[in-house]
Specification:
Elements (H helix, E strand, L loop, with lengths): L1 E6 L3 E8 L2 E9 L6 H14 L9 E6 L2 H15 L4 E2 L9 E2 L9 H13 L4 E6 L2 E7 L4 E9 L1 H10 L20 H28 L4 E5 L3 H4 L8 E2 L3 H12 L2
Parallel strand pairs: 1-4, 4-5, 6-9, 7-10, 10-11
Antiparallel strand pairs: 1-2, 2-3, 7-8, 8-9
Helix pairs in contact: 1-2, 3-7
Length: 254
């Protein structure tokens, strides 16, 4: 059994694989002050909830965009399971042909998403990952990673709006009943959620124009399930894409 952990700025996603089967997926808050013991305890709780034993874990892999806690989580895994986790980064084989200016600067989460998408879907493709930031990655028909965009995530936009205005409240991300809101909260929900959906639709259209062909579009990340239904484009929702990519990379290196 292989433990896969993705460390994001807001959340950490963890799951276990047996061959190609995902046994579970859980999401916890990223806490830069947590100790290795605290993370180990959380991981054990997640395993216990799914009737799995830490002793059954024979390998582990980590993808991280928060360098300050990568070592802590790695030590937590070692404390819990006795295995040393592989960390996605320079020197780890991903199977990608990366065509950006400096391949070493590609975010590990984007590389992992791309590794999974290339295995499971037909190129050319656009991969959308909606977390603290929203990223869009473009893979051409020859499976080359061409580049993409990074933009402000929906939660960051909402936080900025409430912090920089004196009368706008914090809101829950719930699908508004209509685009034209009739009260402050509904106006904010509509503005934040539909503007995100429209920006994704518009960027897909422009990327396809630049490529000169239509793309398979895949979305993942913590907020994707809220936004994909609001988009006009046909988008495949794959909430396990990053975990699948971690397993692809783990196998390439073992």
């Amino acid at each position: 059994m292989i433990l896969a952990v993705d460390i994001g700025n807001t959340n950490i996603v963890m799951g276990c694989f047996e061959t190609d089967t995902i046994l579970f997926r859980e999401r916890i808050s990223t806490n830069q002050l947590a100790t290795e013991l605290e993370y180990a305890s959380i991981m054990r709780t997640a395993l216990d909830m799914h009737s799995l034993k830490a002793e059954s874990i024979t390998g582990a892999i980590i993808s991280s965009v928060v360098p300050s806690i990568t070592a802590t989580v790695r030590k937590a895994i070692e404390k819990l399971t006795g295995v040393t986790a592989m960390i996605v980064g320079p020197g780890v084989k991903t199977g990608l042909s990366i065509m950006i200016d400096n391949p070493a600067t590609l975010g590990s989460d984007q590389a992992v998403d791309a590794a999974a998408a290339i295995k499971e879907y037909k190129p050319p493709m656009i991969i959308i990952d909606m977390g603290t930031a929203t990223t869009m990655s473009v893979i051409d028909k020859k499976k080359n990673y061409l580049g993409g965009i990074i933009m402000t995530g929906m939660a960051v936009s909402s936080d900025a709006l409430t912090k920089r205005t004196s009368q706008l409240p914090k809101i829950a991300f719930e699908t508004p009943k209509k685009v034209i809101g009739t009260n402050t909260v509904d106006c904010m929900k509509s503005g934040i959620m539909y503007s995100t959906a429209c920006s994704i639709d518009g960027l897909i259209e422009r990327m396809e124009e630049e490529l000169g062909e239509s793309c398979t579009v895949i979305a993942t990340g913590g907020l994707a399930s809220l936004i994909v239904p609001l988009c006009k484009r046909d988008i495949i929702l794959d909430e396990d894409l990053l975990l699948k990519g971690l397993m692809v990379i783990y196998k390439k290196n073992n």
